[in-house]
Predict the 3D structure of the following.
Amino acid sequence: MIDKADSILKNIFGYDIFRPLQREIIHHVLSKKDSLVIMPTGGGKSLCYQIPALIFNGLTIVISPLISLMKDQVEQLSEYGVHAIFLNSSLSPEDYRANEEKIRNNKVKLLYVAPETLSMEKTLNLLSHVKVDCLTIDEAHCISEWGHDFRPEYRQLAEIKLHYPEAVSIALTATATPRVQDDIIKNLHLNNSKKFLASFNRQNLFIQVVRKVSPMEQTLDFLGKYPDQSGIIYCFSRRQVDDLYEELHYRGFSVLPYHAGLSDSERKRNQEQFIKDDVQIIVATIAFGMGINKPNVRFVIHHDLPKNIESYYQEIGRAGRDGLKAHCLLLFSYADIRKINYFIDQKEDKEKRIAKLHLDALIRYAETYECRRIPLLTYFGERYSQDNCSM
């Protein structure tokens, strides 16, 4: 079956060779053995379940937390000629029923669905008449209270798995500390699974942290080094996105905004223009970037402090996916820390404590004077030598 995987990689997805670990993971999944895959953003996680889905006779269910992620994945697969659908609230009643009918008639290979939709009685009844070969848990860190994006509905998945005893399980995430990895295995009952852990070290990224003094001037100075290059600037709030976008637009930059306050159609249009290189810079909140595969992003600026190392790592991971050099700049200020702490203080006790631990880890990283790869990789349980550092 692995020979068939090689053929699908080339003839459907257009790649000549697998990236590190992909072939081994696919072979493991095809052997119906459970897996936990920790692979950085841009490492090629999706193919690890999409290729087996095209080889299995039955359905592959992909559990995903966000409607936007589901849409992006299904659209990308459709461009490759792969039959994939989603079930979620964005569909009209007619389209929802049409997708249900496709499932009944075995017309699809991949079904993207949120945990809360999958746990609905009508969904379970629908799928009870279908052969399910693979359960894919994407963004698996959402199951852990110690993760940076805990979603209680992910805790239902261990029970849902019982409905599909013949299905192999593969859990994937780009960012999980050793503690979160253990939590994923425990909560998903992946006790006999194999863990595939790719390196978190992105050697082509130049990582820089500087004290935020005059953010507009610092941003303009930075952009002056990368004329006509593609990049993302992350801001803390919608208002900051709008303000920075307006200033850059006024100064003649090719730039568009992206945040949850924009309409769905405007967000989609701005995202597509960025991906197609019709616009060079996106100024965005963290709402931007999930599931986006744009290889030629040459820089990522954090205009404001992220809330945790996991988010920071995922966001800088959107740069340099083509393997060429890319620059990641974080503007660090204690005023940003106070702002984040204000929102953390609104949380409940345990959630507040975990959020503060995450923020403290990010502050230690930003304040370090050693090679920044050392604390960054150490956070994810990977050892790194100062001798290898080029920063």
Notes: The chain has a mean pLDDT of 92. DSSP finds 16 helices and 13 strands in the chain. The chain has two domains: 2-197, 205-388.
